[in-house]
UniProtKB/TrEMBL annotation:
Keywords: Antiport, Cell membrane, Ion transport, Membrane, Sodium, Sodium transport, Transmembrane, Transmembrane helix, Transport. InterPro entries: Na/H_antiporter_dom_sf, NhaA. The gene is nhaA. The chain crosses the membrane at residues 30-50, 76-93, 105-129, 141-163, 170-190, 196-213, 218-234, 240-257, 277-294, 306-330, 342-364, 376-397. Gene3D superfamilies: Na+/H+ antiporter like domain. It is found in: Cell inner membrane; Cell membrane. It is a multi-pass membrane protein. This is Na(+)/H(+) antiporter NhaA. Na(+)/H(+) antiporter that extrudes sodium in exchange for external protons. Belongs to the NhaA Na(+)/H(+) (TC 2.A.33) antiporter family.
Amino acid sequence: MAKDPAARLFSRLTPSTERTLADVLRTERAGGLLLLLGTVVALVWANSAWSGGYEALRDFHFGPESLHLNLSVGDWAKDGLLAIFFFVVGLELKREIVAGELRRPATAIVPIVAAVGGMAVPAVIYVATNVLQDGGSTSGWAVPTATDIAFAVAVLAVVGRWLPNALRAFLLTLAVVDDLLAIIIIAVFFTEEVHFQWLIASALCIALFGYLARKRITFWWILIPLGVASWAFMHASGVHATIAGVALGMVVPALAAKGEKHALAEHWEHKWRPISAGIAVPVFALFAAGITISTESLATAAGDPVAQGVFLGLVLGKPLGIVLATVIVASISRSGLDRGLSWWDVIGVGFLAGIGFTVSLLIGELSFAGERVAEVKMAVLLASVAAAAIGSSILMWRDRHYQRLYEQRSTSTEINQQVAKAHGARAEHVHPDEPASPRRGVAAVVLTRPRSVKWIHLTRLRP
């Protein structure tokens, strides 16, 4: 007896989610490669004979002091350009909550619980590692809790051409929820002093931005200055400026108005994602990932409880938390994985979620403010590489399995088509677990797309 489709984890996606998934995969794949390029350039530059030029450029200050915006180039990249990244995150969150996978409890519960588990377990591992050793510091507990969606999706796109779309959507939705939780952590735990007059000014700008968006008054020369003003006021308030980007994205309408083909949030996400993935995040990586790598620095990081906690949290804590949380959801709801999926698929995705990078580097700088930052960055880089390597190995193995399955079923389909033609049979779409009736003949499977399986039975026609 087949289980009800609603009781299966990672089942078929909605058409809207399919379209969004395809768009995100195309953009984030290229963005991940650019992010990797920015990281490599930063590491090579910082460890070359021209490292002094790199540090001078990163630490060069400019901007109006009267507006509290006399920042270094590195800070402009961290506080300014990442606001674009978080604006896209806000648009994603609004769309997912209103019209995506998070709008229904049945589909939202798995990525939400998995994201919480994928943040709680790394934090616990980090704290335990630092509490049990001399010289540890619990200040960086939030560093290993983040997932870098651009890197994770780029790796998945390279190694998982045959993986089910539902698995890809699970990683994306989990990363979106992960970003939301990271935003809450940044806003709550890394705000030392709040200047409420500037915070109110920022909130008023954000509210006006949302009002104009709802009225479809979308002239760039009005909305962009409003967005910049809300960011500047947020920065002056003491709350991390990237929160303004999230808030601006969250007030954009996510449902299409009458006569609109796409909702404004979806349209703007499509427009701004290339800027975020192709410019903002790679430039941030260029100025955040430049650390000196030597035998001495590696030895220092290896013996530092902070670096150990970050590494173990990302490489072990992330997959452990995600898998355990998913198992708990499956046990409580008495649900199984969707047909054809294996828990190895979930484990592989869990390791990819251990690629922390962008948000982990940001939280690392906020946590230690110059002290131990180099060790934290090195741990994040090494952990991201290790998590990507392990996750890639698992998913490449699973990808070959799905490819073989497709090839075998394609061969079976050709044979069954010949049988159907020879005996005057017709194909009926039925469930594979459904018992065959006495009139039904040989069972077969056909793949209409590489990642979509349909089961059919051949039924002999009456004379």
